[in-house]
Design brief:
Layout: H1 13-55, E1 58-59, E2 67-68, H2 72-79, H3 82-113, H4 121-133, H5 136-146, H6 153-160, H7 172-199, H8 204-212, H9 217-228, H10 230-244, H11 249-254, H12 265-274, H13 279-309
Antiparallel strand pairs: 1-2
Amino acid sequence: MSTEVRQQYPPTPQKKQKKYNQRTRDRISGYLYISPFFLLFGVFGMFPLIFTAYLSFHRWNILGEREFIGFSNYIGLFTNDPLFWKAVGNTFSIWALSTIPQLFVALVLAFILNQAFLKGKSFFRLSIFMPNVTSIVAVAIVFSAIFGTQYGIINYVLSLVGLDPINWKGSYFGTHVAISSMVMWRWVGYNTIIYLAGLQSISKDLYEAATIDGANKIQQFFYITIPMIRPIIIFTVLLSSIGGMQVFTEPLLFGVGSDSQGLTMTLYLYQEAFERFSFGYAAAIAWVLFLIIMIVSLINLIVTRRIKST
């Protein structure tokens, strides 16, 4: 038998060049596909971040020339501005009153909506998410009527049982409770839907086995539900903490109060920039707020990871 031996020649320079050009075109086309994201991020994300950092070292009222003043904005913010520290305290107070109960209530509601005996689940799921898509202006009008000092619904109910009315817009407690209630009412449905999605991934065999062993619904909630969706809980805690540090619309519409008891960090930033036209000082507030959010997020992440490891 004769065998045919084929001689393999190395690729010619023209073939190498063609293969190289095709690979280059593939890479360029890939970068072009993802370029819109980076362009939008650069224009609306990275540039404002860098420009705000640059502006925080200047004195500028947006009309005149920018004057470089170094760290004077930051020094004045930390040493000569008690209103800023009041805004920081108000923000943390409103965050604690709204975020912690909000996440717990959302988890309980998700657990209830996930039960097999509940009828009309689609209606309840849609209803509980409606506050999140409702206009915040309409929400503020409704809650202003609920927490009104003279003709508010809550004060009317208190008068029926012989209790004195509460000055919701004139006291720290009243203002913080009212704003926290607005935040909680708006976002509890959003977190409920997230928790509900996590609950539906848990095998029902676990609950059936727990029921056979004699565990009631409360025990199932604490010993099955919470451990199984712990990563989702960590996610909502971080997301709610970041959002809680940036509360703006609710105190703006409800009112900061006579003693600035409703003033938050973002609202103070807005006042400095667009009411007093002190854009350099507002930029410094923005960066301090960014650092505070980073610290709060890291603390939450460390605490939740330690809880997860125990």
